[in-house]
Amino acid sequence: MGPMLRYQPLEMPPLDDPMLREPGLDLARLATHWAAYGARRPMTAEQMRGADRRAQRLGVAGRDLMEQAGTAVAAAARALLNSTDRASGGVTLFLCGPGNNGGDGFVAARHLAADYGLRSFVVLVAVDDRPGTLDAAANWDLLDGDERIEKMHAASGHDVSLLLNGIERAALVVDALLGTGVKGSLRDPINQAVELCLAARRAGVPILAVDTPTALDLSAGVPSEPNVRANVTVTFHRPKEGLLTRTGRLLAGRVLVAPIGIPIQADVG
């Protein structure tokens, strides 16, 4: 038998939190509800990856962490829609990279449909036609069969550019492309997906970033070019140092910190 896992006092993982399913939840109420998590000590991207690895060694499945993160993103998306003058019954566009950040987006789209009845158009932005991690691939497959979710694979910048037509009609764009930021220039199709996010913002479509706006480094707060500028960013477990810099605050917009069930024993360093 492994060690008994301990969690932060009063932590309420998103899957167990009934408030997140309240129809009238808006950003102000969600920010207040999650304020205690935002007051935790900040951490770097490297420290977060370490906490994630330690949690899995303690027996917390990576897929369970992804499910909690995606549930939190879905709640934030619904709250953002409830806080704008755009129709919350419109289609949310998910731009998802091939890694676990994209996997969080797949989970969020599933919960938007299952928990709130909202429609999504989910794009796998990657050269390969399958996500690159087992957990992300499993959640990509779980989107099949839900009539409220349409899927697309965008293998090239040209594929992504086709989505520019009518982008102003999207209710929301979710940036789930790259979770820890990058150093150096972005490559297509990710580069073109970032340009699509910028075009959507210019058209007045709100942008929700998952963990970090794509191309912003979560440790140093230094962006690559081009980079996403979000209205709201949902990051996980603890605030990230890169989101607290002047540039990080500018690109991330309003930052919400959501719990995902990382035990105290994993939260060291």
Describe the secondary structure blueprint for this structure.
Layout: H1 27-33, H2 35-38, H3 45-57, H4 62-82, E1 92-96, H5 100-116, E2 120-125, H6 134-141, E3 149-154, H7 157-161, E4 172-176, H8 190-202, E5 207-210, E6 232-236, H9 246-252, E7 254-258
Parallel strand pairs: 1-2, 1-4, 2-3, 4-5, 5-6, 6-7
Helix pairs in contact: 1-4, 4-5, 5-6
Number of strands: 7
The biggest sheet, with number of strands, parallel, antiparallel or mixed sense and barrel status, is: 7 strands, parallel
- Name of the CATH homologous superfamily: YjeF N-terminal domain
Number of helices: 9
In CATH, the architecture is 3-Layer(aba) Sandwich
Poorly predicted runs of 5 or more residues: none
Strand content: 5-15%
Oligomer: single chain
Assign the CATH topology: Rossmann fold
Q: What series of H and E elements makes up the topology?
A: HHHHEHEHEHEHEEHE
State the secondary-structure class. Answer: alpha/beta
Determine and state the CATH class: Alpha Beta
Mean of residue pLDDT values: 93
What characteristic shape results from the CA principal axes? globular
